[in-house]
Each structure stands twice: as C-alpha cells, then as structure tokens.
Design brief:
This protein is of the alpha+beta class. The chain has three helices and four strands; from the N terminus they run βαβααββ.
C-alpha cells in the first residue's frame, strides 16, 4: 500500500475485492469493501472513494447497449448482481465504459465507475449506510 499511496492524494481507489464462490452469502465481500471504504474516508485529504466494477450480468443481455443496461439497473427495471452489490450499499454510478476490459466476456468488456459517498454520522446506527456500520454478522 505505501508503495502506491500518495499521501497528498485526494482520491482513494477500490481495487479488486472478491471472495471465493464457496464463501458467498457470508457477507465477506461486503465486509472487505466496507473496510476499504472506511479506510479511504479516514485518510486526511481524501474527498472521493471510487472504483471500477464489472456489470457481470451483461452477457445475459448482449444486444442491449451499455448505456441502456446501466440505466435499466439504476431505474430498477433490471438487476445486475455486481452493480446491485455496490448500489445497495450506497454507491453511485458515475460513468460506464465499453472496451474497459476486452477479455472480460461476462461483462462484455465493459466497466462501470462508481463512487461511495462520505458516510453521514448519525446518532442512531440504524440510519447509517451499510458501509458505515457493523452488523451482528460482521462482529
């Protein structure tokens, strides 16, 4: 981390968090991402926590343009599992890009830039975003 981190940097990039398929449903991926979001926002001078993610369900709709695919996810008419993983926890889609990872056949080569907003402190932990609070499972 120290070799790639610039202490004067204002962006914190989330990179490559995943868990083994046998561990799915245990919220390990969510905990790993939440820890990175918390870490990013804890650094002085950081004003954006963002990363590229994969629209992993896109191969199921190969004829749909990426703009329409992402828009249909945002308006709730379709659901992409990986985009849902992020947007359900408060991430916002900033942009989407064709030919981002040309060899990624599941996502048809596309990538989606997301941003996690700074958590708003609340007196009641139940009103904090998922990435800003601990759950019984994560303790």
């Amino acid at each position: 981390f120290t070799a790639t981190h610039a202490s004067e940097g204002s962006l914190y990039q989330l990179v490559g968090v995943s868990c083994h398929p046998s561990a799915r449903g245990q919220r390990i991926g969510r905990q790993l991402v939440d820890l990175q979001i918390t870490r990013g926002w804890s650094l002085p001078g950081v004003h954006s926590v963002l990363g590229f993610t994969r629209p992993t369900g896109r191969h199921l709709s190969p004829g749909v343009p990426l703009d329409d695919y992402v828009s249909s996810h945002e308006d709730g008419s379709t659901t992409d599992p990986t985009l849902s993983f992020h947007t359900a926890a408060g991430a916002v889609v900033l942009s989407h890009h064709e030919n981002f990872r040309p060899n990624d056949h599941e996502s048809l080569g596309s990538g989606v830039l997301i941003s996690y907003p700074r958590p708003i402190p609340a007196t009641d932990p139940a009103h904090q975003p998922l990435h800003g609070r601990m759950t019984n499972r994560s303790r």
